[in-house]
Amino acid sequence: MSDVVKQKELEDNKLAGGGEYRYGFHTDIAEDKPPKGLSEDTVRLISAKKKEPEWMLEWRLKAYRHWLKMQEPTWPNFEYGPIDYQDIFYYSAPKQKKESPESLEEVDEELLKTFDRLGIPLSEQKRLTGVAVDAVFDSISVGTTHQSELAKHGIIFCSMSEAVINHSDLVKKYLGSVVPYSDNFYATLNSAVFSDGSFCYIPKGVHCPLELSTYFRINSENTGQFERTLIIAEDSSYVSYLEGCTAPTRDTNQLHAAVVELVALDNAEIKYSTVQNWYSGDKVGKGGIYNFVTKRGKCAGVNSKISWTQVEAGSAITWKYPSVILQGDNSVGKFYSVALTNNHMIADTGTKMIHIGKNTKSTIVSKGISSDFAHNSYRGLVKIMPTADGARNFSQCDSMLVGNNCSANTFPYIEVKNNSAVLEHEASTSKINAEQMFYLRSRGLDLEESISLIINGFCKDVFKELPLEFSVEAVKLLEMKLEGSVG
Amino acid sequence: MLEIKNLHAGIEGKEILKGINLNVGAGQVHAIMGPNGSGKSTLSKVIAGHPQYEVTAGSIDYEVNFKKINLVGMEPDLRAREGVFLAFQYPVEIPGVPSSVFLRAAFNAICRHQGAEEMDPIDFDKYVRTKMKTLSMNEDFIDRPVNVDFSGGEKKRNEILQMAVLNPRLAILDETDSGLDIDSMKIVAEGVNKLRRKDNAVILITHYQRLLNYIQPDFVHILHDGRIVKSEGKELALEVESRGYDWLIK
């Protein structure tokens, strides 16, 4: 590309509010979309659509009735317009020629094309090698790749809806075991109306040979996405799971309230990575996704490990704290996060590490990048229970500011109830500035390369935790977002 | 190689360079001296293309390989790829980026532009280490993040290393000697002298005559209030050393 063209594109991007959002397109497809509004009937309808067993409906209703008594939380460090819960569609499924396709070959062409365009080809010939994908479009899973290959190892990887019907014993046992239906306002709402998400079960002693992943796409207007994901790793098993998310460009805010539960039994390890790129609103902060998510893992077994790695680059508001309950002795919890906010985006994110077992260890590395008028907060809790002899935690929270109108905050909470615990906390704030950019450019690096180097350097400790191809994607995503803001 | 004509430039609406004329030929070393605030650093930044400085009049013609271009309006990275190099007075820290990664990215960006082959990490490592040896730099330097926790002397030496690695046609050294002890200065001067060739040129910006004992300039220019007020041979530097600037300014 010539420099003139490049410059022109950069300027266009600046006008559009930072790097252009590549995934802002909308798929025109007929929808099965029952009316707006939330009531017991809505809950029953969703359950019926999914042909769920009675116990599942009861669980949903229990959650719904509890939710009615709950108050929307008001403690975060930001404000947002009131959400009218009666003005949301709670279910929207693309209408396909064949009602419930048996295999990916029968999935509607329009849907396959959508995922192609998002860079997630699903068809047999084109799909990614080494990665099994569950593709979720609004309220339903469109299809899951590599299922038979995984089944050879006894691994179950399917949509949540399928799991409720085909693996109900497992779902019954573990659903709500980490995030109870009564946990918090949004998790309870999710428990009542959750649509699709992924279910993974890794049997004893199995090292999952593929990366498992789910790609979440919001397409339908004014629809909430309430996905639910459950991952169970049996004794001495291993799994690495990734999720990606995008949504079309729209003027109105859309609610995304997901719940993710992870269970790691003795000696098991779960690596969970997220690259979140929901539509974040335009330059003046209009539109975008409210990403209010509850993610929690339980290291239930001895020597078990759970790590959360997240790159949060989208959404008008991100409000989530992927946490680990360190119950098993010697269990390990890790949290690696890069949160990038530009324009008027807000991120209030961090983690909770709850140490219960002996000699449990946790590591927290959080990198916040804020530009334009954005607010970026790290909020985290390290809690050492009286039983957690010899617990250790290391936390590092760094913020980078681009420009003078953005802000960064750090809220580290620490509760220690055992004298043998050792905790360390480091924090820093820095600025990416015109001098750094000029220095790199005066050595021959162009604008993109210069931003990439600086961001890479800042986020190095987090990116190295991501699977390789995703860390490349993550770097590109951040570069694109920052193009209009630096220099 | 470099022909600056009637150059006017400033920052935030304030004019600092008020009509600079300067000719630098291939194989030459020019020293630019002058009191504080005379515009020395501004001149170096304007040649390198600092985006905060605005050129309001004049031209900076740069000729390399029989190709003449006006640098004014060109992006700084493009100037660098055409062979212009600025050794910073205050080198900037880039946390988390190892010097090796930064240097190779820069080297390859220049190679790509000039149609030369890029170097793979192993060959490049060898190449950089030879250059480091000539500048008496520690082995671990290459793995440390760019300029982070470097001493003043190390930062300046790093600038000279970058110059040696990137092999520019026109090198501008902005007060590279300030803050250096005598041993470091000798090493830096040696580094510059090794780079002197028939086909490249050096502009030394300095407060003191001291550096010029080690790097013999072909011309010395005195800058005052945004203009070059006197240009002579190397003996002018000695005269400034003994008499100060006052006699030139009045």
Your description of this structure?
The complex is a heterodimer of chains A (487) and B (250). With 487 residues, chain A is of the alpha/beta class. In chain A, 24% of the residues lie in helices and 34% in strands. Chain A has a ten-stranded mixed β-sheet. In chain A, strands 13-15-18-21-19-16 form a six-stranded parallel barrel. A two-stranded antiparallel sheet of chain A has the order 1-2. In chain A, β3 and β4 (140-144) form a beta hairpin. Residues 1-18 of chain A have low confidence and may be disordered. By secondary structure, chain B is an alpha/beta fold. Chain B is built from eight helices and ten strands. Chain B is globular and about 55 Å long.
Summary keywords:
heterodimer, A: 487 residues, alpha/beta, 10-stranded mixed β-sheet, 6-stranded parallel β-barrel, 24% helix, 34% strand, globular, disordered N terminus, B: 250 residues, Rossmann fold, 6-stranded mixed β-sheet, 4-stranded antiparallel β-sheet, 8 helices, 10 strands
